[in-house]
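It is time I had a proper look at our fold encoding. Can you supply me with one protein entry, sequence and fold together? It will help me judge whether the discrete encoding reads sensibly. Leave the record below and I will have a look:
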Amino acid sequence: MADRLTKTYEASSQPIASIRSSVLRVVVDALEANGISANKRLSKCGLSREPLDDPYIPVSLKNYIAFFEDVAKETAQPSLGIRLGEAIKPEDLGPIGVLYTMMQTLRLAILRFCRFFPALQSSTKLGLIIEGDATWLEYQIEDPSIWPRRQDAEFTMALICALTRSRLGRGWAPEEVHFEHAAPRGHRDLAQFFGAVIRYEQPTNRMLISNEDLDLPFASANPAAITIIEQHLIDLIGDGAVQTFGDAVANAIVRCMKQGELTLELVASRLGIGPRTLQRRLTAEGRTFREVVQEQRHRTAEALLKNERLSLGAVAGKLGYADVATMSRAFRTWTGQSPRAYTKQKSSQS
């Protein structure tokens, strides 16, 4: 582990690592299936139930990993990641999971899964690597400080295996599987599930797949639907640009405003970093937390006030203000107008 942490990783130049809430939902459901409320543990790991209502909302990858590890410990299920990965259904992963099952061959399915994986999880390496005659599917979260992460690694490798078996049959198996983490107790469960040699404390998580298997056809290939799903995924990830740190902070501020609580600590928690780290990274960009909050409130206020059906009280609440008077003073500072005057002006212009 010491070697892993000494790898170059300049946090100040990295975006906030995130994962779609649809994946968090899988782990939350597993916890509550054991009769254990997820609320306290979500809060402990800097998460909340709010994003679970929308499968596309990104949540902190670091907090998700910590929650996954905590759930495995709380439920005394050290092989939870494998169990959830084995039970995964394509639709649980959204369009990227469905697309996997519609491709013509295993190779194409994996290549598309890797291409669109950023729509599901950011700051992560996933790809096919060719070493001589061998082809490996490699998976690794780029931030080495996100550790331990055994459950996520086993979950991800297991779900890819499960998706493949849903097309090629339950007897399909990779030739070899590597994991970054040390061999856990009861690791025979992993060998039994994968049906392959398992090696631990390796440089990365990866799976050796024979070239013959990669070219096996999928019986349920659906070329007509592929284009539609791919376009949806392209819309989700845009032109491939990674969410910037500034965008991640702005999104976290908006979510905190909706909850009615907006503090440095809460925003940092949503981002999966400490308050001091958040301050330091904003300072490096020549900004303060207060400036970013006011900027986001200003933008949101103008957008909300264009909706004449919203009362000023509702607008103030959505901005995280305790009352209309405080919101009105802030708005006048930003624009030189009262909220009512701004709304009337925009109404007359439309």
Notes: Confidence is low (pLDDT under 50) at residues 1-14.
